[in-house]
Specification:
416 residues; alpha/beta; Rossmann fold; Trna Endonuclease, Chain: A, domain 1; 2 domains; seven-stranded mixed β-sheet; six-stranded mixed β-sheet; 41% helix
Length: 416
């Protein structure tokens, strides 16, 4: 039986995408509602790529959702059009997905679409359920279907006007190196509370004003700065920083000796990237593997498909989609000093919200620094400013695989 699916596309277009990819109707009508016309056009482009050839996809003009009288006329005219199509194709069934539109809009469409005996869909991503209310049986219980995992990172981003152009984790070489360094990476993450000062200094040795790496070109990227291989710690390190330096020396990521305890030599681009924060990116990827996430994209470069904000593309430390929900992770390795942690922490939190604006995502910041001296103040400021980001600091980094597993299972970041 031919099936026509009507989707009211809201500011969360990925919600409209889920039932279409799962049910795969032969005909689709996309109507912008509480969203721009471009949102429906993006979905149409994506669906033409994803669905079988010959699938009919139409995009309609924007619904005047804030004007009830015009909205009612719009719904009536659409219902009349579909009713006439049912004369041409008597077996044509119609389903309406009102998405996340307002209750008034849903009621107006429900009233109008009785003309073409339309069924209704409701998508509950959190519950993982798709509900179908049959027109022929309004008094019966709805049909309940489990939502299939139809969205991946690329589909999720494209539906929201973004595109992932590349990621470090796309490289077999990077993944292999990441696995080889796993014991060292886990050691740094599991002792981050005691190594915060050292890790902050190493980060500055790489990315500071006279650091080992210098930027090159308009995109995120860097190369070794000539003559900057030798760097200096602010003071001679003690335990456990000395153990960490020995481990990094033995792994070939720096040169260090107790005979000249303040001197650190960083001689390769790969080593500089790891010491400058790559270890935390790798730890997030390894933790995602341990948690059983289907796919984790590390250092993913994200472009705005509108072309308006691509002077410097967003680079996310970690992206993942499970249960059709997006996880957006960034990291911060703060310079030594409690006040600096507050300043850099708030700056990174605000920047993270800007980078992921418009995405319905679970946002997490992995933070390494002297937060034991500033955690309460940062938490207060985060709460007062309404920053909806979960922060995993220092001592809690060791629990990241379990936290990711909890998010995978429940679709929400576990409270601690």
């Amino acid at each position: 039986m031919p099936h026509l699916h009507v989707a009211l596309v809201t500011e969360r277009p990925e919600v409209s995408l889920i039932p279409i990819l799962q049910l795969r109707p032969q005909r689709i009508v996309l109507i912008p509602c509480h969203s721009s016309p471009q949102a429906a056009e993006r979905l149409a482009i994506l669906l033409r790529h994803e669905l079988a050839p010959g699938t009919e996809i139409e995009t309609y003009t924007r619904l005047p959702a804030n004007e009830p009288e015009r909205c009612a006329r719009y719904a009536d005219e659409l219902a009349e059009t579909l009713y006439r199509r049912q004369f041409d194709t008597p077996s044509l069934s119609v389903t309406v997905d009102a998405g996340g539109c307002s209750t008034l809009v849903a009621l107006l469409f429900q009233q109008a679409m009785r003309r073409c005996a339309a069924d209704w869909l409701h998508v509950d991503i959190q519950a993982g359920a798709l509900y179908r209310f049959a027109y022929a049986g309004p008094d019966s219980a709805p049909e309940v279907m489990a939502i299939e995992p139809v969205l991946d990172v690329d589909r999720y981003l494209q539906a929201n006007g973004r595109k992932r152009v590349r990621a470090l984790s796309d490289s077999d070489e990077w993944r292999q190196a990441c696995r080889q360094r796993k014991p060292l990476t886990r050691y740094l993450a599991h002792h981050a509370d005691h190594l915060a000062v050292l890790l902050g200094e190493l980060h500055d040795m790489v990315h500071g004003e006279d650091g080992t790496l210098e930027r090159a070109g308009p995109y995120p990227g860097a190369r070794l700065r000539p003559g900057a291989e030798r760097q200096w710690l602010h003071e001679a390190p003690g335990f456990p920083a000395t153990d960490a330096l020995k481990a990094l020396h033995e792994a070939g990521l720096l040169r260090w000796s107790g005979e000249a305890p303040r001197a650190v030599d960083i001689e390769s681009e790969e080593a500089a990237r790891y010491l400058g924060g790559g270890w935390l990116t790798e730890y997030a990827w390894l933790s995602g593997q341990e948690a059983g996430l289907a796919r984790v994209c590390s250092e993913a470069h994200i472009l705005d498909l509108s072309g308006e904000h691509n002077g410097e593309p967003v680079v996310s430390d970690c992206l993942a989609v499970e249960r059709n929900q997006l996880l957006f992770i960034e990291s911060l390795i703060a310079r030594p000093g409690a006040s600096t942690c507050i300043e850099q922490g708030l700056k990174r939190l605000h920047g993270m919200l800007n980078h992921s604006a418009g995405l319905a995502a679970t946002r997490v910041l992995l933070a390494c620094g002297e937060f034991d001296k500033s955690r309460q103040r940062l938490t207060e400021l985060q709460r007062l400013q309404g920053l909806q980001v979960a922060v995993v600091e220092n001592a809690d980094l060791k629990h990241l695989p379990g936290l990711l597993a909890g998010w995978k299972e429940h679709g929400a970041w576990p409270a601690r």
